[in-house]
Each structure stands twice: as structure tokens, then as C-alpha cells.
Amino acid sequence: MMELIAACFSASGVWLTAQRCLIGWPISLLATFLYGWVFFHARLYADTILQGVFSLTILYGWALWARDKARQNTLPPQPLALKKAIIETLGFFILSTLWVIALRCWSDDPAPLLDGGLSGASLLAQLWTARRHRISWLLWAGIDVIYTGLFFSRSLSITALLYGGYTLLGLYGYWRWKA
Asked: Where exactly are the transmembrane stretches of this chain (predicted)?
């Protein structure tokens, strides 16, 4: 039941963010608390920790969007410079690698490579979403395809279906965030 409630809040938050609605951020914040509980009980520890980090990045994104919304009535996508994209991707790749090593050494995580790697990539996508970089939606779509399989393998069927839907929402968000 908790998984279903978390999925509903999470889907609502992502849909509203794709619409560039500020209310998507607090709804997503609530979803992180709910999914933290779900992932902990599924022994997906990197994803559990990721929910806590997402809470912080959601507060960051919410503050950025609220500030920009106060200055202007619209929230247009922002360009992402290639050099910045490469540096940030490399940084999150290193974070993911360390996360995978930690999970392999100090946890009973059944899928440390996927759990750690997807968690690091998700943080990068979340950062780019907070900054309103359109490319974040394509990154999310790719991540969510892989997460769908991971969640099915952990018997989190509702979450797997949610992430399958997120793949489509990622493509929709990319289309919707045209300049």
C-alpha cells in the first residue's frame, strides 16, 4: 500500500514538473519520504539514501524555481554548456563508482552496480532538472528504462510500472520544454 501511495505522489510531482508548475516540487518532496521507506524495506540502500539526497535537491530546485518565478512569470528552459555537462557527468560517474564499491563492500544490496550507478545518474538528472536544462528529461528517460527492470527484479511491480511511465514522461518533458 505504501508503494502505491508513494507512486501516486511521485508521478504527480514529475507530471507537474514537466508542466513547469512550482507545486510539483513540494509534492515530489513528500514522495521522497515515502519512497525512502519503500526502498529501505526492499534493501535498495543506495536508492534509500538517494531519496534523502533528492529531498535536498528538491529544496534547491524549488528555491531556484520560486526565485525565478518571482522575477518573471514564466520558467523557460536554460541551456547547458557542453564543457559543464562533461565535467558534471564525470563528477557523477566518479560518485557512482564510489557508491557501487561501498555497496559491494558494506551491504547486502542484491544489485549494487545498478543501484549505485542509477542513483548517481539520477542525482545528475535531478541537478539538471533543478536548473531547468531540457536535456535532463532525456537522461531521466534513459535512467528510468533501466530502473524499470531493476524494480521488477526486486518485486516492486507498482514502482516498475511507474518508472516505465516515467520513461514516457521523460520524453514528454523533453518535448514540452522546448524553448
From this structure: 44-65, 85-104, 158-175
